[in-house]
Specification:
The protein is about 35% helix and about 25% strand. It is an alpha/beta fold. It has 3 domains: about 5-90, Rossmann fold, CATH 3.40.50; about 100-300, UDP-N-acetylmuramoyl-L-alanine:D-glutamate ligase (3-Layer(aba) Sandwich); about 315-455, Mur ligase, C-terminal domain (Protein-Tyrosine Phosphatase, Chain A, Alpha-Beta Complex). The chain has a 10-stranded mixed β-sheet with strand order 8-7-9-6-10-11-12-13-14-15, sandwiched between helices. The chain has a 6-stranded mixed β-sheet with strand order 16-17-21-18-19-20, with helices on both faces. α1 runs parallel beside α4 (about 90-100), α9 (about 275-290) runs antiparallel to α10 and α14 crosses α15 (about 440-455). It is globular and about 60 Å long.
Length: about 450
């Protein structure tokens, strides 16, 4: 394809990385978004023409319009493109076009895919292979979520939320877990799991499915894919995993384990905390070795990974109170983030400010969210971040707080942040958790702590 590519919602985490890759391919890029952001500033600096606000005039002369599932058909730029006969494609299609001719590693799963993708990209870079990658989050060590490299590998975070992860035809498919989510799209847990079976079927002949044996859904997928003739490698702490894990240490700032593989044991020492991150690293190790990197080299390279933005990201410490931000937005992710925070807090208390993401998800998993938050010492919930969904009468964060004695519901977000800050004492850890704009409240908490210290 030649001509300008226009992105609607270009500042989104998934859209901005694809736009960067298209720019790196040497193609002109334009885009629009509802508000200004750091992502828009970065894209302008890279050469994209970007507007704040949507206007039909923006698409004039474009050869292709790229949208995500969050963009509605009545968007004025989408309507103008269709009226003008401009091709309209989903973000995943644009990403697949950018990855043409490369060995795609598609990382999928209900949770862990951003971190696993980032670990793999960082490790392959450290191992000297210069991979391309498209990851829905900024990789701290690389300063970006997108890169067009000189190597043959393309690491893609494959989004299952709308079925778009079926478009990549990967050489290696990684499935970290399969737990019911995005039921607004799939309708049932069975349909959600069936989509992963279809994903395994998109792996190229002779390729590899890497799946976590510790997760029941991923283990079922591994078994069914093997029966269908797909080459499978499992990893995990469970008995019978092809690459078994012995976890040695789970510290507040790192973790370590031993990988037991067919060629012997490999030491894995990570600079990120949490048992979930040990599993993520094992998945990345399997994928890297499948691409031809020596196992010991791959393990050492994984040790250079420092995290991704919004994945237990340290935002600062004021008055002896540490503030951490995390993107977790389904019950298992939230539970893992809280467990990591609990260890990191040590002798201090853990205070969580949680913003539920999507009305549908809150309805489906209110009880599970309450359970995932239970081990925190104090929990403050603010209003649901609706994202692509319209508000639903009678649906609020009280669906969770009603199931969690002692928790607080503070609908106004800044007031919620100040409430969380007011609960904190020296030695405590405060976490902002959620996939919406709760990340902005980490700064509010820090400012509130600074003001209290000065008074």
């Amino acid at each position: 394809m030649t001509g300008r590519v226009h992105f609607v919602g270009i500042g989104g985490a998934g859209m901005s990385v694809v736009a960067e890759l298209v720019l790196a391919r040497g193609m002109p890029v334009s885009g629009s978004d509802a508000r200004e952001s750091a992502a828009l500033e970065r894209l302008r600096a890279l050469g994209a023409e970007v507007w704040v606000g949507h206007d039909p005039a923006h698409v004039k002369g474009a050869a292709q319009l790229v949208v995500s599932s969050a963009v509605r058909e009545d968007n004025p730029e989408v309507a103008a493109a269709r009226a003008a006969g401009i091709e309209v494609v989903h973000r995943s299609t644009a990403l697949a076009q950018a990855a043409a001719g490369l060995d795609v590693v598609a990382v999928a799963g209900a949770h862990g895919k951003t971190t696993t993708s980032a670990m793999l990209a960082v490790a392959l870079q450290a191992a000297g292979t210069d991979p391309s990658f498209a990851i829905g989050g900024t990789v701290l060590a690389l300063g970006t979520g997108a890169h067009l490299g000189q190597g043959s590998a393309f690491v893609a975070e494959a989004d299952e939320s709308d079925g778009s992860f079926l478009r990549y035809a990967p050489r290696v498919g990684v499935v970290t877990n399969i737990e019911p989510d995005h039921l607004d799209h799939y309708g049932s847990a069975e349909a959600f799991e069936a989509a992963f079976v279809e994903f395994a079927g998109t792996i190229r002949p002779g390729g590899l499915l890497v799946a976590c044996s510790d997760d029941p859904g991923a283990a079922r997928l591994a078994a069914s894919a093997a029966r269908a003739g797909v080459r499978v490698q499992t990893y995990g702490t469970s008995e019978g995993a092809d690459i078994s894990l012995t976890i040695r240490e789970l510290g507040p700032a790192g973790s370590s384990a031993v990988l037991h593989g067919p060629d012997g044991d490999v030491e894995l020492v990570l600079a990120v905390p949490g048992e979930h991150n040990v599993r993520n690293a094992a998945a990345a190790w399997c994928a890297g070795v499948a691409l031809g990197v020596d196992g010991a080299t791959m393990a050492r390279a994984l040790g250079t990974f420092e995290g991704t933005a919004r994945r237990f990201q340290d935002r600062g410490t004021v008055a002896g109170v540490r503030v951490v931000d995390d993107y977790a937005h389904n019950p298992t992710k939230v539970g893992a983030a809280v467990a990591t925070g609990r260890r990191a807090a040590g002798d201090g208390r853990l205070i969580v400010l949680f913003q539920p993401h999507l009305y549908s998800r809150t309805i489906d998993f209110a009880a599970e969210f309450a359970e995932s938050l239970r081990s925190a010492d104090e929990v403050v919930l603010t209003a649901i971040y609706g994202a692509r969904e319209a508000p639903r009468p009678g649906v609020s964060s009280t669906l969770i707080t009603d199931r969690l004695p002692g928790s607080r519901y503070v609908p106004e977000r800044v007031e919620a942040a100040e409430t969380a800050a007011g609960l904190a004492r020296p030695g405590d850890l405060v976490m902002t958790i959620g996939a919406g704009d709760v990340t902005e409240l980490a700064g509010v908490i820090l400012a509130s702590l600074e003001a209290r210290e000065r008074s």
